[in-house]
Amino acid sequence: MRTKLLILFSLLIPIPIALLFTYPRYTEQDDFNMLQQYLSIKEDRLSVMTFNIRLDGIERDLNNHFTKRISRLTKTIESWQPAILGVQEPFAGQLLHWHSHLPNYYQYVGYRYHSMNKKHQTISSEQDFQVAILYNEQRLELLEHDYLWLSKTPRTVGSKDWNSHGVRTLNIARFKLINTDLPTEVLVFNTHLDVQSEQARQEQSKLIRSTINQWQEKYPSAAVLLLGDFNSMPNQTTYQILTFSDFLRDTWIECKSHATDCLSNVFSSTFHGWFGALVHTYGIQLLQTILFTFHGTGVQIPYNIPTHYSDYIDVIKELFKFCRLLNWSDMISSWSSHRFHVDWILYRNSLDRSRYLQPRFISVVDVRSGNYSSDHFPVIALFDYRP
Ligand SMILES: *[C@@H]1O[C@H](CO)[C@@H](O)[C@H](O)[C@H]1NC(C)=O
Ligand SMILES: *[C@@H]1O[C@H](CO)[C@@H](O)[C@H](O)[C@H]1NC(C)=O
Ligand SMILES: *[C@@H]1O[C@H](CO)[C@@H](O)[C@H](O)[C@H]1NC(C)=O
User: Fold this and answer.
1) Which of 107, 220, 226, 255 is most enclosed, with most CB atoms within 10 A?
2) For this protein, what is any one GO molecular function term (predicted)?
């Protein structure tokens, strides 16, 4: 009798596990439907995308190599046509290569652009376009540009502090919107915070907050957009530093709270680590809750998907040691929010209240279950920008 029960159990257990990693489903058809809705309301609204396009490196699956992804990336941009596109990670050569495939109206700014402008003929570094801003020159005119290193010495090229694993930067562009009756300016910031050090992410975001403040005091009639890969989840400390007392607003939250005149989808992740649409399933949401909670406490978690079983066991052992750092009520609340986005679009209205950005659309898009553009899915928003 007991053996029969055991057999029955072992046959039944895989069923809930299979369900956990199957639902909810989000298909390429859902993504296509989102695109149709977006195009139907795009008109001349301001469209803004943030997209970690991943560096050009060795990939375990050759189908994920940049040479394979470049045409998919291009197709994604051609479909959604963001007027402002903040990218993260590309090497200089990678960005220039990709740019030659994009529609002609895209211009870009990174570090080298700036240094050449000032006739300082520096040797181009691979990192010069890691947080490049691309823009449609038929919609926007570049008025001013700056570039900072997110360290204690922001003007020192290549500097880093606070145990930051990588050199992290902030790209800044001031644009004028073309074809509007009134002079309209927007300040665009694009960044990529450190992947390993929680202390670095927090200090880097404080520096971003104070930099935005300085720029906006100088240009009080300009609205602000902050795009990036923040390597942390909404509601974690980095997010709170940037959004505290409504300094910056989270387009996702604003859109969801005005659901009658703002369209959005429900897709739980932007980073998918080549799992694709599968990251949206309850099973992977649960895993993400656990990993991100550790990540937020400063525990270093592997930022590559482990390949061997032994690696998984090492990770579990490591996490077990830090279990006491976990706040279960925080974990339950982040699990129930179903939002593990590390890529955000934040905004702030003009200080002189002359202009308002009002979100009309925001979604995680380009969702696929194969033939990926990147190991992140981009986020795109549409704004009304009016007096
Ligand atoms: C966390 O985020 C959710 C929305 O994602 C929000 O409703 C809630 O107030 C936030 N909680 C805290 C403590 O910030
Ligand atoms: C867990 O977090 C909640 C809210 O963020 C807080 O009120 C509570 O005191 C925390 N608990 C522990 C044990 O730190
Ligand atoms: C990926 O693209 C190839 C070639 O275009 C195609 O044969 C294949 O079905 C695609 N795979 C998926 C999962 O879309």
Assistant:
1) 226
2) 3'-5'-RNA exonuclease activity
CA 253 – ligand 1 centroid, Å: 9
* Residue pLDDT, tens place only, 176-190: 999 777 779 999 999
pTM: 0.91
Eight-class DSSP state of 122: P
d(CA 163, CA 327): 25
pLDDT in tens, 60-110: 999 999 999 999 999 999 999 999 999 999 999 999 999 999 999 999 999
Is domain 26-386 annotated with CATH 3.30.1490.190?
no
> Cα of 329 to ligand 2 centre, how many Å?
7
Q: Which of 381, 333, 325 is nearest to 41 (CA)?
A: 381
* CB-CB neighbours of 255 under 10 Å: 23
Spell out the domain ranges in the chain.
Answer: 26-386
**Alpha helices (H) along the chain:** 2-12, 14-20, 28-42, 66-80, 92-99, 111-117, 198-218, 237-243, 251-257, 282-297, 309-321, 328-337
CA distance 168 to 28: 33
Which CA distances in Å does 184 have to 195, 325, 384?
A: 35, 47, 12
| Ligand 1 pocket residue status of 237, Cβ below 6 Å | no
